[in-house]
Amino acid sequence: MRSLDQRFGKQGPRAAGFRRINKPKKYKRIVAVLGALLLTAGALSGVAVPARAAATTIVSLTFDDGNGNQLAAEQVLKAHGLVGTFFITTSWIGTPGYLTQADLHTIAGDGNEIGGHTVTHPDLTTLTAAAASAEICNGKSTLESWGFQVNNFAYPFAAENASVQADVKSCGFASARGLGDIRSPASCPSCPFAETLPPANPLVTKAPDEVDSTWTLQNLEDLVTNAESTGGWLELTFHHIAVGTDPTLTISPTLFDTFVTWLAARTANGTTSVRTVAQALGQSTTPPPPPPPPPAGGHTTGGAIGAAWTAQGAQNGPLGLPVTDEITGLKNGGAYQAFQGGQIHWSPATGAHITRAAIDAAWASQGWENGYLGYPMTNEITGLKNGGAYQAFQGGQLHWSPATGAHITRAAIDAAWASQGWENGYLGYPMTNEITGLKNGGAYQAFQGGQIHWSPATGAHITRAAIDAAWASQGWENGRLGYPTSEEYASAGGSITQNYQGGLITWSPTRGATIIAN
């Protein structure tokens, strides 16, 4: 159980009517750990690898929202040879009291990291799935269109759940910071002193409460020295470094300067290192090369599509040379350009993203942006299990592996697959697209380790192994059992049971599968 300090005092430039809560509540979040149930006589075993404390404690100084007074704080870091990570709410950039794009380029040019923090800073858990995904993905694509490499995310208000975590992953982020899971001055006394490296769950990295006006120099120093006693990673979260601003999420420039001076001296003993989030996680921070001049007699690129091409290495990257000029007039004001190695599509809602090879062909089979998938929201993301890759679109995802090819998942079936860990869970990769037209408006999709069936009356549920075979013997959803109404669950005597509209199926190692009809 983890405490969560949700600071609803953080407001954007358009939130004047939003009620300020000066004493935010402490929330408790219960993280449910779902164990996979066994359906075969041979037991599946998982080996938990204990995290080991890093020999050197890593401290990451993070700054949320893009407040204008953070530029002076960054100059303090620069003067001491330190760097930080700045999580940016894109719609606030350039408005009164916030950083400008020029400021962000100054910050990045000094070796700091730019991270994502959505477009408008909402509580993502209160939005629809589509709206949450748009907030996360569009914030990332906007920052990338401004020329920044964006790998890491911070949840507004530290509000997240499984669906929001899935959106963060789908949008192409490698990590996302939470709050309140590391021992803090006024909360979580039983929490650890530091996060592990690598984090147990990179989509919710553990961090102390956000720094606020009640914190002292001793509080800040204690967090570092406590982390040094165990080793690991300490992410500190700042908002305003100023006097006379938000009374809750502010510390004075004097306190910040004193702490940074102390921290810089602390690094000299070799037990503490100050790094950006990307550096702490071992991510590449090499900026994209400058755009080369257009080849003689070739096609030109520009704008967001040209920036996306350049970010991939321009003509020396996987896309090669352009083979068309930019073509406009696509759905919802979009545009695209074809290259030797793929295509780049852009729309005002999604930004510019690359499609290529098998994933591009699967998207094309559904009508490109005119089909139910809409526009891509990320580039292709590689490095998945067994050499796989995936790409997120407005209406779903495309996953590819050498063994299964490229297939689409979406809506309730995609959510059910995600609940088991996507390709890393027992279902593995999808082996078909979603197949519709089943009884009573249902649909199903086959995966390496089982199937997911959905109907309007029952929702999406997984079937596999012996219970799936027994259900199949009755004609699947067309038989007397109808659709599944639950996942597998442990029942009496070491059995496994799954409920159906017309009864249930129970399996045990000694008796196998038994069908019990209503």
UniProtKB/TrEMBL annotation:
The keyword Signal applies. Keywords: Signal. It comes from the Bacteria. Residues 57-152 form the NodB homology domain. The keyword Metal-binding does not apply. Residues 280-304 are annotated as: Disordered. Residues 286-296 have a biased composition (Pro residues). This is NodB homology domain-containing protein.
